[in-house]
Specification:
Distance between the termini: 33 Å
Helix content: 40-55%
Strand content: 15-25%
Structural class: alpha/beta
Strand order of the largest sheet: 1-3-2-4-5-6-7-8
Number of strands: 16
Number of helices: 21
Radius of gyration: 23 Å
Bound molecules: cobalamin, iron/sulfur cluster
Length: 507
């Protein structure tokens, strides 16, 4: 369940990847990225991913016995629970072994993260260069002073070095995919797949998006030949069915996007891939270009439609997208045989019932006109570092003051000061009806029991009727569905894939 590269003389670094509360299990790309420079420098690397490792705490502590330090990768939300648990346990047993945190949450809230007693070092932003410099300093017992992008503790004081400038993706080493146990991920997920990065950053600045704070807005990318070479090699080497290209906005350079498809076709390797891209950039592509991409294996484009209300789109700073753009993107993708996948955010500051109704109408209309189109919905989550945060504060959001405080962030903050009580319950019921009204294709494959399939089939039409009529009282269909689930499914943890499956963030 954990992978170690043994041919090395330098000490071992233990990486921990906490569960991200989703069935979409695959190798943690952030850790694979920062591992390569360590391996090249001669360090050993062990990755323990709690999603695929039974008794993960015991395993981490055992591995740490002869290791130099513990490094954890995390984003804001439920991952913080296991981060805190493991970091505390590690510090208790090995008080002298540094605990290093990297990834989105430490990047966006470095001071607060480092203030936790059981955290010794935080790395802000890209970690490839920073981590190997930190590890070298720890190994030689020297100060971390002067290592850009790093915060650390010295003489009981918290210190931050100057920020590290962003490096273009093309300069970065390849990710250490060979450390990943794809068999184990497949057992959890039901699908054999991996993530791949072909570009970094996004030129836009949507109000809820945290990207600017970590990757800036200067989009940079790999050339088509390199992307095709690496992706074809990856799927062939690890026998993968699907690659999710996790770029924030894959389509910024139209010629490059089409070029990648041409290069994949040239190599004749068959695999499915999906990308994230904004609707306006989908609309720029011609039918011929999209068909070519489909032939090369592109099966889905995930896009942030975000709202069916022009007023809310404006509040979200999405001037690059009109309601017609969403329709056009759905049409173009459907006509080319590519699944249009959209994200919708309910409860954005400034959204009222009228605007929510507009979103529901948009969803219903698009799903009917373009069968196969899918919508994933979220309730607005105010993330630190997002442009809208200031306004959210003014509207009464109270963000946690400690790292542990963020553990229950989801549970607390899907309930917003302006969306709570009856209104909040109604939105949750509405989201449940949306889940059953039209089919969606998640990455994680969860086979439904025949009873669940039967109930789903029975309530699909009533769910659509309710959504058309915006009527959510006495949700008997959902009670029926829950009863069927209880009969065939074991009880679920408090924060789990079912709650989060709808919350993939897309452009
Ligand atoms: C893939 C993905 C997922 C997958 C994860 C699948 C998996 N098996 O890992 C799934 C679908 C499960 C998912 C879920 C969610 N995600 Co997500 N996801 C992403 C996505 C698209 C790619 C992440 C990735 O691997 N990138 C590639 C790697 C190489 O880049 P990186 O992670 O930035 O890593 C670099 C640095 O951060 C750093 N680094 C990373 N780890 C470490 C560790 C150490 C020790 C060091 C030193 C450095 C370091 O170095 C790396 C190389 O430079 C990002 C957006 C993005 N473009 O990155 C969003 C993103 C990370 N997700 C986000 C969110 C909000 C979520 C959800 C909370 C959504 C929701 N509302 O439910 C959920 C739940 C997450 C949870 N963990 O609890 C936000 C995080 C914002 C934040 N404040 O933390 C992002 C940034 C999207 C966005 N723009 O808003 N997600
Ligand atoms: S939400 Fe998507 S389109 Fe908007 S700024 Fe973030 S990455 Fe770019």
């Amino acid at each position: 369940m954990e992978r170690t590269l043994l041919v090395s003389t330098r000490p071992k670094i233990v990486f921990f990847f906490p569960a991200f509360s989703s069935q979409e299990a695959t190798a943690p790309l952030g850790i694979l990225a920062v591992s390569t420079p360590l391996l090249r420098a001669g360090y050993q690397v062990t990755i323990i991913d709690s999603t695929i490792t039974p008794n993960f705490q015991k395993r981490v502590l055992e591995e740490l016995a002869d290791a130099l330090c513990l490094a954890v990768s995390l984003v804001t939300g439920p991952m913080i629970r296991e981060t805190v648990q493991i970091a505390r346990a590690a510090k208790e047993l090995y008080p002298d072994k540094p605990v290093i945190l990297g990834g989105w949450h430490p990047s966006l809230l470095p001071d607060q993260t480092l203030a936790a007693k059981y955290v010794d070092v935080v790395v802000k932003g890209q970690g490839e260069d920073a981590l190997v410099e930190v590890i070298r300093a720890i190994e030689s017992g020297s100060s971390l002073n002067g290592i850009p992008g790093v915060g650390y503790k010295e003489d009981g004081q918290i210190r931050f070095n100057a920020p590290r400038s962003l490096r273009p993706l093309a300069e970065m080493p390849p990710k250490a995919y060979h450390l990943a146990d794809f068999d184990a991920y497949e057992r959890v997920c039901g699908r054999r797949w991996a993530m791949y990065t072909s570009s970094l950053a996004c030129p836009y600045n949507c109000g809820y998006c945290t990207n600017d704070g970590v990757y800036g807005r200067k989009w940079n990318a790999l050339q088509p030949a390199q992307v095709a070479e690496e992706t074809c090699d990856l799927v062939s080497r690890y026998d993968l069915e699907l690659l999710w290209i996790v770029d924030d906005n894959f389509l910024v350079d139209r010629d490059r996007a089409v070029g990648i498809a041409e290069e994949i076709l040239k190599r004749g390797v068959n695999f499915k891939w999906s990308v994230q891209g904004s609707t306006n950039l989908v609309c720029r592509l011609t039918h011929e270009e999209l068909t070519l991409m489909r032939r090369a294996g592109l099966t889905q484009v995930a896009q942030g439609a975000d709202s069916g209300s022009p007023k809310v789109l404006k509040l979200m700073n999405k001037d690059f997208q009109k309601i017609e753009t969403i329709y056009q993107a759905a049409e173009k993708l459907s006509q080319s045989g590519i699944r249009p996948s959209f994200n919708i955010i309910f409860g954005y500051p400034g959204e009222g019932e009228e605007e929510r109704r507009e979103s529901i109408s948009l969803i219903m209309d698009i799903c009917r006109r373009y069968p196969g189109a899918e919508f994933w919905t979220n309730i607005f989550t105010p993330y630190p570092g997002a442009p809208v945060m200031q306004q959210a504060f003014e509207l009464g959001i109270d963000v946690p003051k400690t790292l542990e405080g963020w553990i229950d962030f989801f549970l607390r903050y899907t309930v917003l000061p302006w969306l709570k009580g009856h209104k909040h319950r109604e939105v949750q019921v509405m989201r449940e009806y949306l889940r059953v009204a039209f089919n969606r294709v998640p990455i994680g494959v969860r086979r439904k029991h025949s009873l669940q399939r039967l109930v789903h089939g029975l309530i699909e039409l009533p769910a659509r009727w309710r959504l058309d009529n915006y009527f959510f009282s006495f949700p008997i269909e959902l009670w029926l569905k829950d009863a069927a689930n209880r009969l065939v499914d074991p009880p679920k943890p408090k924060v789990d894939a079912t709650q989060l499956e709808a919350e993939v963030v897309a452009c």
